[in-house]
Write the structure tokens for this entry.
Amino acid sequence: MTALLEARNLTRHFRLARDGLFGPRPVLHAVDGVDLAIAPGEALGLVGESGCGKSTLARLLARLLDPTWGQVFLDGRDITRDSAARFARTAQRRAIQMVFQDPAESLDPLMTAFELIAEPARLLSGPMPRTALRGRVEDAAGAAGLAADLLARLPHQLSEGQRARVGIARALVVGPRLLVLDEPASALDVSVQASVLRLLDRLRREQGVALLFVSHDLNVVRLLCQRIAVMYLGQIVETGPAADIWENPKHPYTRALLSAVPRLPGDGAPPVTLEGEPQGPVDPPPSRCRLAGRCFMEQPRCRTEAPELRNLACGRAVRCHFVE
Ligand SMILES: Nc1ncnc2c1ncn2[C@@H]1O[C@H](COP(=O)(O)OP(=O)(O)O)[C@@H](O)[C@H]1O
Ligand SMILES: [Mg+2]
């Protein structure tokens, strides 16, 4: 089956300012050689600690940011040949839509909910009769769980949850096949969060919209996503079916991450923890595992050879020399 979206060796480096007058400028490896595929109608969860590159990867996949190198394929076609700025003017732009983290900040306070939802439809779908536009906006609002009588309101006249739904309706109005959600619920109240997550799950099941769901909350990702990708310092360290990773995490970083999630007593493996501080994303040594120095499974080889992401059985892959 062709993936809906596929990343190959996707990389984004940021060149930083030089420390002194001489020498090379340090390079921050925000996203480093990511291979990842999202199937049509699938929910993929992207997890990892703050600063590991989740938002940068999400923006690369949504073609809002240009990669340093590597490619993104939509239906098998390379969409990184055009710059992000050019891609924004193509018909394919509609297939991938990003929902931004903080709906209150990303919504123009002077536009009504109707105008806010109509705006991307006008920009991306071209001119259309007023009645057709109204129909599209009402459908998108309905799919996002926003009652029609709220469409005349300004953002400050809406609740937090209603504003989040306006943000989702703005993405849905152009008929996307993939929604990229960067920590969509983290700014929201817990009960609002749950209802937004239920809405997203329903959209996927009923309309077949694929989801790339970025979160640091493994519990949320486990419930919503079929598959999980775990990131550490710009790289994917483990991918696989969500239930399998939850039951039996293999990479030492994933094990530590899961160990930190509160579970029922007597459930799962004994807790594992990582020592020390992460190495940091600036000029990482190329011949060394990025977890070296923190890892409870470390061997001498981890400091002389960087592990590749290796495929295991059952759709799992792990970046570690010592996981069989
Ligand atoms: N425009 C930029 N310039 C320099 N560094 C950046 C830029 N954007 C992100 N970074 C760095 O890239 C790394 C990954 O950031 P980000 O993708 O926001 O991680 P996450 O979303 O997982 O918290 C961080 O070290 C961050 O400081
Ligand atoms: Mg982020």
About this structure: Residues 197 and 224 are 7 Å apart (CA to CA). The chain has a mean pLDDT of 91.
